[in-house]
Specification:
About 30% of the residues lie in helices and about 20% in strands. It is α/β, with parallel strands linked by helices. Strands 2-1-3-4-5 form a five-stranded parallel β-sheet. A five-stranded antiparallel β-sheet has the order 6-15-14-11-12, covered by helices on one side. β11 (about 295-300) and β12 (about 305) form a beta hairpin. α5 (about 225-245) runs antiparallel to α6. The protein starts with 20 loop residues before the first strand and ends with a strand.
């Protein structure tokens, strides 16, 4: 049977006084071995427990034991008919019982082959019985315990790296790919999760084109910043895409999304804001729905950037059980840029005080950058960079910004 690795939460036992506890499993522990002169770290005496078989050893194996000395000649594990126990099945049984403890194998005089095999099976070190004395055993115990600590630390580091790589691959796969084939609309996005070293946050967005030529864009924000909020944001985005491709829009779509949120959220206090825009095939008009979300910003040639109307919006998803979300028609014109964003863009600080940038501050910022000739990707990069600089560093909230260009 394989020897299981310890879980990442498990750590080698450490006694409050820095001493060591040794469990000796040998059929005659009081005979040829003497443990009275054993010394651990800083010269402290080693506490010794003795067991004559595996059953006694399992009973004496408590959390304060750091090292086990196992006699490989101990008859401990039953073998199949015709097989002989060479001690390694007993060793494997001990390793399964004690995944956090260092294990020393005690082998007969000069049996180097069994000694080396014991280390390959999983023991930290081996000792020859004829060479055993207090000095050698004390050194071997300290070495084995430290090697076990290093092995566990390396294993935990490897597991953490593998987990991080898996999470990164998963999160990249969950980031949306716009479905805009056949549309003249140009799409750009910037995304920054508030969580350190994360790829996804509670903000989410998506853009799809349906067979009738309408382009549907959405951006939303789940309250909170943890992995649960990020997972819920992904669920809402995927649900929005499926419902949109199925032909739902406006109030009907948002009502269904609210049901999804209510079923999937971990707490009844969790809510999500949302903004949806359905752009007509000719690009001149759009239907706007707001669920507690800031209104998009429009940039048109020859005009100052402005915010779309916010007055007819409904509440955030998950706040009111029978809420309604009116769908408002807005005129966009022949050529325009539409910026959709989450509150991470507008809630950054301005300077060292408590003042926030706000929607009006974003309008002023975009107005200045448009006058400087910035468009598309350059405009997005400049806007996010300046918001961070005004905040005095990285933003603590998740941030998502979309820019849709027509004409």
């Amino acid at each position: 049977m394989p020897v299981p690795a310890p879980s990442p939460a498990e750590q080698p036992a450490v006694l409050p006084d820095g001493g060591l506890t040794l469990l000796v499993i040998e059929d005659d522990p009081g005979g040829s071995l003497s443990f009275s002169e054993l010394r651990g770290t800083a010269g402290k005496p080693v506490r010794v427990r003795t067991a004559r078989n595996l059953t006694e050893g399992e009973r004496l194996l408590t959390d304060d034991v750091q090292c086990i000395l196992l006699d490989l000649d101990l008859a401990g594990v039953e073998c199949l008919p015709g097989e002989r126990d060479d001690g390694f099945e007993t060793l494997r049984a001990v390793l399964r019982l004690a995944p956090r403890q260092a294990v020393l194998a005690l082998v007969p005089e000069g049996d180097a082959e069994r000694a080396a095999e014991a280390v390959r099976v999983g023991a930290q070190d081996y000792l020859f019985r004829d060479e055993l004395d207090a000095r050698v055993l004390s050194r071997a115990i300290r070495y084995a315990v430290e090697r076990k600590r290093a092995d566990l630390a390396q294993w935990q580091l490897t597991q953490s790296r593998l987990t991080a790589q898996e999470n990164a691959r998963l999160e990249r796969g969950l980031l949306p790919t716009p479905l805009l084939a056949g549309s003249d609309l140009r799409f750009a996005a910037r995304y920054r999760p508030g969580r350190s070293r994360a790829l996804l946050g509670g903000d989410f967005y998506d853009t799809v084109r349906t067979p009738d030529g309408t382009v549907h864009a959405m951006i939303g924000d789940v309250c909170g910043h943890g992995p649960d909020e990020a997972a819920l944001g992904v669920e809402l985005r995927i649900a929005w895409r499926a419902l949109t491709l199925a032909g739902l829009s406006g109030d009907e779509l948002l009502s269904t999304l609210q049901q999804v949120l209510e079923y999937e959220r971990a707490d009844e206090e969790i809510f999500a804001t949302l903004c949806t825009v359905d752009i007509a095939p000719d690009g001149r008009r759009a239907g706007l729905c707001l669920a507690g979300h800031p209104a998009p910003l429009v940039v048109r040639s020859g005009q100052a950037p402005y915010l779309l109307p916010q007055e007819d919006g409904g509440p955030a998803l998950g706040l009111l059980p029978h809420a309604r979300w009116p769908r408002r028609q807005v005129e966009l014109g022949a050529a325009w840029s539409l910026m959709m964003y989450t509150d991470g863009l507008i809630e950054g600080r301005v300077g060292e005080g408590t003042q926030r940038l706000g929607q009006e501050g974003v309008v002023e910022l975009i107005t200045r950058q448009v006058k400087e000739g910035l468009r598309g990707e350059d405009l997005l990069d400049a806007a996010v960079t300046e918001v961070r600089e005004l905040n005095g560093g990285e933003l603590t909230d998740d941030l998502a910004v979309l820019l849709l260009d027509w004409g």
